[in-house]
């Protein structure tokens, strides 16, 4: 029976083979090959799209590109391998990595170490009291009470008294500075505590990736917010200017996220990492994205809350400020000539250490006043002595302390950071609807100049962003000009409002000697224009 069945199946197969033409198999194979090729093309296309999106995402995060290079340099110099997936570049832009780089904190006096991921601190204060105290803090920033926040509250208030004593001593001088600046920008007062977890209020703090100052700015970020950085002057160390830059940076971050916890977190790990955490969690609540943040920055906001709590309730824990190392009263002088700290010290009696403490931005004890006016701060008790010797202090051993090569080696970097010595700087806050072109036209400068002065890579600006504008003509020999008239040979540019049907080539044809490219370059725009847009027409070359 089975043999008969197999025989019938074999017969049917032979019949089928004879029915199908010989070329039918070849045609089928060709069809399959075409379908396979089409599928391969679709897969390749999808892979190309994914790769393009990956490259675009990476390009958007320029800071990540910069910092990956720093990681590689660190690896070569120190032999310490840092995995960018585990230690994101922006995270190390903080002294929190010195204190908590492996989620550990070392107490100065006892040598105890704590694993902040697993520790549960015991406290002399009950959880209910801790929570009540936290709730009583008058703040615009949400401060929920949870295990992470609790641990940092106890850490700062009970586990590191010597560290807090030093911070409280420094806060007597620095915190009022921050309060005034943050009040000027309308920021929550408690943001001043960010500097505590960034640097423990040390203006000379340097992270292992090169972040500098109390507010821990990388060079790129510092320059984008108008801070001067070269081998003689590093304004990241200036308590006043760095705090001002930090206030503007925090403002920009808040405008991005609309939440202060997210903004504070982004200050540490970068807005790119916060956006990634938001996408992965599907939420914009900080505590919902907490586990999606880079491992080394999760404790940043809890540490921020903990430092705030410890400072507010210091008396309840018997914490007191240590010896005040900075003077209570300080005088400020404008220095318009090259000056060395040693010249000041020799003729007034103020110590070099005191001058360095009040003026940490002058990294080689030299104030390069010949290029522009700089600020010198001195203890009040030496004011009269400085004024009495002001005429002679500049010439005293100038050939010894002020070598020409040392002073002039940074001229190019200074001019790029701050315009020119004869320029008057205007601080402009971007409003809704503003464009770089309109701002340039208002102040009779070019878009290219605005980009150069503010270290902008594109014409993109955000509401609340501060733009610096230099309105006077620079010194002779400068490559850049402070106005459109200087650039165009002395004639002022013509304002033109785009009408329906206008093209750049058509507009250029109405102005002899001016091309469409001239208009684009002068205004910093592309070929696309819109009705109602205002542009400047440069004079003919």
Fraction of helical residues = 40-55%
| Total of DSSP H or I helical runs spanning 4+ residues | 26
CATH topology of the largest domain: Lysozyme
* Radius of gyration, CA atoms, in whole angstroms: 32 Å
The proportion of residues in beta strands is: 5-15%
Indicate how many domains the architecture comprises. Answer: 3
**Second-tier CATH architecture of the largest domain:** Orthogonal Bundle
User: Which runs of at least 5 residues are low in confidence (pLDDT < 50)?
Assistant: 16-20, 58-113, 409-422, 473-490
Explain the overall architecture:
There is one protein chain. The model is unreliable at 16-20, 58-113, 409-422 and 473-490 (pLDDT under 50). The termini are far apart. It contains 26 helices and ten strands. The protein is flat, with a radius of gyration of 32 Å. It is mostly helical and 541 residues long. It folds into three domains: 96-317, Lysozyme, CATH 1.10.530; 330-414, no CATH class; 421-537, Membrane-bound Lytic Murein Transglycosylase D, Chain A. It is 50% helix and 8% strand. The strands form five sheets. It has a two-stranded antiparallel ribbon. The longest helix has 39 residues, at 22-60.
